[in-house]
């Protein structure tokens, strides 16, 4: 009997879909186009708004796709699609669960003219880490020169375009195919794919002109049906599995949590548990809330109260003691087993180690996990990772790390505040804090800073070292024989600096007192320059002669330092350093 009841309660849920891509590629516009699909707002079973998500029922997708379903022989049996309303990496990484993401599929939006950009590449790397399948949307096709706009299906649009316009589109699509190939993915335009299990689907669209949305909805549904069937099986009446998407202050309700429910159900009055900044939060559901449809009821009331909710859905929960709730935390029914699971999840992500590495703080568990992973991919082990704002003690901790390695003794604040005390202390102790709401930006800023600092260090080191130089005493260019000798020289290789000791056949013959180029004093002369040099202690026709090749004298201790910055020299300069070293050893 119980087995029969369980079988009755089992059903397919709506796949959960996130939209990612580079800034300005059109992520929000794609979501707007999906939400604006031309179905009357109040039609029964139409598109509905959840908390943090938009539900597109299957009948709307079937109506939109029409003949396309017959053409591609797709049979759709899922109840619809649930789109997460917040586009971007953060929403995707917040929707994490053990071993992957709650998001079943992702839409990666690409500007067709720009291809894969920084954020797109990072998005694909994150999707790869979470093993999340995705579709690529090649957006802004309406901006291709000569494109004739017809709303709706891209398949129909393609039939009305000139040959040269279709050729432009093909060039752009195959540039994208090449870039995806470099990232390890086979891909093809949607109507040329032979195996959906082996190739990433590329759909040309214009979110602005609402072109290609029917294909996008249809292919998302078809891929879900074909490859996610088992993952989409849920127990309607079973224990809830959800993730906290956002923690919000709501007028009249206090702190509330926006939750994406991906399995089971929730009922008003039930006890739930979730992760908090100071440990597990146990609380009782006071109210389950969903957004009121536009124009319904009192305009001052944003939500409708509901008694229960079934997966997959977005819902706002009002309950006591939610002040310390963590975005990205799992949410479960109250039980010892579930409490242990949530504790394990949180402690698996939070880090407290002896590593010589940075401190990372974020606003959600998922984004914290993503940043740790991206840093570790770059060979940087994290010392501490946690949720919340940067306190003063983090700065003090990083000061001691920076003494061992200045490039590791830094702090990353992603989507979180830096306390005033921490800012003051960081300035005083010269500890670098990187702040951003964009993952790729925070890492890009860090890498740029490392490069600048290393360049400064290198230049400082270079300024104290003797540079390799080889130069020729030119014929007819002796201006003074001694005290000091002044001769015209051509720099054959390297860089001759004022103050450099000069040698011939490994023996020091004097020191460069001054360098003149076109009558003006200069500090150094580089390869190809013809300059006058004055050399202390050298006597022309005794220590040096016309046509002599002279070299800078590099002290033994400088050779070791030059080795550490060998990437500052050309191949010819490195050969010259070897030549001088050999000359010194043989002298």
Write the layout of secondary structure elements.
Elements (H helix, E strand, L loop, with lengths): L1 H8 E3 L3 E6 L5 H9 L12 E3 L2 E5 H8 L1 H6 L7 E5 L4 H6 L1 E2 L2 E2 L3 E7 L6 H12 L4 E6 L14 H6 L3 H20 L4 E3 L10 E5 L8 H15 L5 E3 L5 E10 L3 E10 L1 E3 L3 E6 L2 E6 L2 E5 L11 E4 L1 E3 L2 E6 L11 E4 L2 H14 L1 E2 L6 E4 L2 H13 L6 E4 L4 H13 L6 E4 L5 H10 L3 E4 L2 H26 L4 E12 L4 E13 L3 E4 L2 E11 L2 E3 L1 E3 L3 E7 L12 E4 L3 H9 L6 H16 L1
Parallel strand pairs: 2-5, 2-8, 8-9, 9-11, 10-11, 24-25, 24-26, 26-27
Antiparallel strand pairs: 1-12, 3-4, 4-5, 6-7, 13-14, 13-22, 14-21, 15-20, 16-17, 16-22, 18-19, 18-21, 23-25, 28-29, 28-35, 29-33, 29-34, 30-31, 30-35, 31-32, 31-34
Give a structural overview:
The longest helix is centred in the C-terminal third of the chain and has 26 residues, at 439-464. The protein is 33% helix and 31% strand. With 587 residues, the chain is an alpha+beta fold. Strand 16 (271-276) and strand 17 form a beta hairpin. The chain is built from 16 helices and 35 strands.
């Amino acid at each position: 009997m119980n087995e029969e009841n369980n079988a009755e309660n089992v059903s397919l849920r709506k796949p959960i879909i996130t939209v990612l891509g580079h800034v300005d590629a059109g992520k929000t516009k794609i979501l707007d186009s999906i939400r604006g699909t031309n179905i009357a707002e109040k039609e029964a079973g139409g598109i509905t708004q959840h908390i943090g998500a938009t539900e597109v029922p299957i009948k709307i997708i079937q109506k939109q796709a029409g003949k396309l379903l017959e053409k591609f022989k797709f049979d759709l049996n899922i109840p619809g699609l649930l789109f997460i309303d917040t586009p971007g990496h953060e929403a995707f990484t917040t929707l994490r669960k053990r071993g992957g993401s709650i998001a079943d599929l992702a839409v990666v939006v690409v500007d067709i003219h720009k291809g894969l950009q920084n954020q797109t590449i990072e998005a694909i790397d994150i999707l790869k880490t979470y093993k999340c399948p995705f579709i690529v949307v090649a957006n802004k096709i309406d901006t291709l020169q000569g494109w004739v706009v017809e709303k709706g299906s891209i398949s129909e649009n393609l039939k009305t375009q000139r040959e040269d316009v279709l050729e432009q589109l093909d060039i752009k699509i195959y540039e994208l195919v090449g870039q995806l190939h470099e990232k390890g993915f086979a891909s093809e335009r949607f109507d040329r794919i032979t195996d959906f299990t082996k190739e990433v689907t590329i759909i040309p669209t214009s979110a602005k002109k609402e072109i290609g949305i029917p294909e996008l909805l249809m292919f998302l549904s078809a891929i879900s049906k074909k490859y996610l069937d088992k993952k989409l099986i849920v127990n309607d009446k079973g224990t809830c599995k959800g993730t906290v998407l956002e923690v919000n202050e709501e007028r009249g309700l206090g702190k509330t949590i926006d939750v994406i429910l991906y399995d089971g159900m929730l009922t008003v009055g039930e006890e739930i548990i979730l992760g908090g900044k100071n440990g597990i939060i146990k609380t009782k559901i006071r109210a389950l809330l969903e957004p009121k449809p536009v124009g319904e009821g009192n305009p001052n009331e944003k939500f409708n109260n509901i008694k229960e909710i079934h997966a997959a859905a977005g819902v706002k929960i009002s309950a006591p003691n939610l002040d310390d709730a963590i975005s990205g935390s799992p949410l479960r029914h109250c039980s010892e087993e579930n409490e242990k699971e949530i504790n394990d999840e949180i402690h698996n992500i939070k880090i407290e180690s002896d590593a010589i590495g940075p401190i990372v703080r974020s606003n959600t568990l998922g984004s914290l996990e993503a940043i740790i992973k991206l840093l570790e991919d770059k060979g940087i082990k994290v010392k501490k990772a946690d949720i919340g704002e940067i306190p003063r003690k983090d700065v003090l901790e990083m000061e001691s790390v920076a003494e061992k390695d200045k490039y590791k003794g830094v702090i990353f604040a992603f989507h979180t505040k830096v306390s005033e005390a921490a800012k003051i202390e960081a300035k005083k102790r010269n500890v670098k804090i990187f702040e951003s709401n964009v993952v790729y930006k925070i890492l890009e800023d860090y890498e740029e800073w490392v490069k600048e600092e290393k360049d400064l260090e290198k230049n400082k080191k270079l300024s104290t070292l003797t540079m390799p130089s080889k130069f020729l005493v030119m014929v007819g260019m002796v201006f003074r024989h001694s005290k000091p000798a002044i001769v015209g020289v051509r720099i054959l290789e390297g860089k001759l600096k004022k103050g450099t000791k000069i040698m011939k056949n490994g023996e020091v013959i004097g020191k460069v007192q001054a360098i003149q180029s076109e009558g003006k004093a200069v500090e150094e002369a580089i390869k190809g320059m013809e300059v006058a040099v004055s050399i202390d202690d050298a006597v022309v026709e005794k220590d040096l002669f016309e046509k002599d090749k002279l070299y800078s004298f590099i002290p033994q201790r400088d050779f070791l330092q030059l080795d550490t910055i060998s990437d500052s020299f050309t191949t010819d300069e490195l050969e010259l350093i070897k030549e001088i070293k050999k000359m010194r050893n043989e002298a």
